[in-house]
Amino acid sequence: MEKELKRYWEGKYPLVQSYWIGCILIPIVLSIPFVFVTGNVSSGAAFFFIIYWLFLIGANAFLLIGGFKSATIYVKEKQRKKQNSGWGIAAQILIVLAGIYTVLEVLKVLLS
Fold first, then answer.
1. If you placed Cys at 70, which of 11, 39, 63, 110 could pair as Cys (CB 3.0 to 4.6 Å)?
2. Closest CA to 92 of 17, 25, 19
3. What is the pTM of this model?
4. What is the enclosing helix (H) or strand (E) of 110?
């Protein structure tokens, strides 16, 4: 598991995997527990969700950074081969926008 995490962090997974699985699918799956949160939760559940929310922030940062590194490697390789690197650039832009959105959502929660 540690080997796969290191490989992901270094951007060594193919762009299609790191973007669609690492930057889209896994964050959605990790967010599912928040669908079941209602206005009235016990103190134990509240504690769990605070800890889980902090984990989710770290996981999202890890996944977005690894995905961005993968996109960067993809762009460099395509440019080296004199091929179109549009998908890699598009992925980089969308990952940056996802990172900005994540930061704004965290700030919104912290400041409310």
1. 11
2. 19
3. 0.89
4. helix 86-111
